Amino acid sequence: MIIDAHSHVHDPVESHLAALDDAGVDRAVLFGTRPHPERAVDLVSLRREMSILDHALAGRGNSVEGHRTAWAELHETLAAHPDRFIGFGSVPLDLSEEDIAALIDREVVGRGLRGIGELTPPAGEAARIEPVLAAAHDQGGLPVVVHGSAPTTAEDLHTLSRLAARYPAVPLVVSQLGGTNWMAAVELVRDTPSMYLELSTAAIVFAVRLAIREIPERTLFGSDAPYGDPVLARTTIERVTAPGEVRDRVLGGNLGRLLGIL
Asked: In this protein, which residues make up the domain named Amidohydrolase-related (predicted)?
């Protein structure tokens, strides 16, 4: 089974399904989203959508009310296509530890979602995900996905590694190969047994090759669609791996075992 470990709700969903079909992807992890760059028809509208992304990555608008539309879009898409999408639910990080735990119980576990994410703490503030890790631990070890590219810093990646070591029963996935800090991400994930590295939107092909070589059992194929493309992401994995067990693991086996669906 080929599983895209990282994608966001598309408008319309049919464009996402077509991209998955083109890539031969069976299922995709689906996160809610506030920006919709796929709606853009020109530079002006793209700037408008990307400003929403910038706002979210800076930690602004990080409230329950700010997430409600994204949650509704996510649940509508999951209900319409349960055979293609695996739902993960994000939560605001500005709440108390008790409120975060209650929200995860109600909006993630209570709705049958398989994990938490994509979390986007502001630059230098990765420690703010600790209440989420504590709640994920209390829920039996739900996987948690954290944004790994900018504005995530190298120090943030070190913070994530320390937190992962504190909650070893919680699989912690760093997305986008850690962005420009990919070498640090590879080393930290390699040396932290409960961490995984998702490989989407890599700017350097040999970064993907080296990540898979270092941690073949904890690297995950992902596209970050609509920011990335499933066809290109799968092609990258296949360019840097030979047919066989390692490629099969990265393209879906690792995630399938993590989620208990293989």
From this structure: 53-260
Q: Comparing C-alpha atoms, which of 146, 197, 136, 200 is closest to residue 168?
A: 136
> Could you tell me how far CA 201 lies from the centroid of its own chain?
12
| Whole-structure pTM value | 0.93
Please say whether the beta carbons of 120 and 148 come within 8 A. Answer: no
Phi, psi of 164 (to 5 degrees): -60, -40
DSSP states of the chain: --EEEEEE--SSHHHHHHHHHHHT--EEEEE--S--GGG--SHHHHHHHHHHHHHHHTTTT-SHHHHHHHHHHHHHHHHH-TTTEEEEE---SSS-HHHHHHHIIIIIITTT--EEEEE-PPTT-GGGGHHHHHHHHHTT---EEE--STT--HHHHHHHHHHHHHSTTS-EEEPGGGGGGHHHHHHHHHT-TTEEEE-TT-S-HHHHHHHHHH-TTSEE----BTTS-HHHHHHHHHHHS-TTHHHHIIIIIHHHHHHT--
Q: Is the dihedral of CA 166, 32, 179, 22 positive or negative?
A: positive
Residue whose entry in the numeric block shows the structure tokens 């929200």:
103
- Looking at the DSSP bridge assignments, the partners of residue 197 are 174, 219
- Condensed to tens digits (0 to 9), the pLDDT of residues 34-75 reads 888 888 899 998 898 888 777 777 666 666 766 788 899 999
Q: Delineate the domains of the chain, giving CATH numbers in brackets.
A: 3-259 (3.20.20.140)
Task: List, for residues 93-125, the tens digit of each pLDDT value.
Answer: 989 999 999 999 999 999 999 999 999 999 999
- Return d(Cα 259, Cα 224) in angstroms, integer: 19
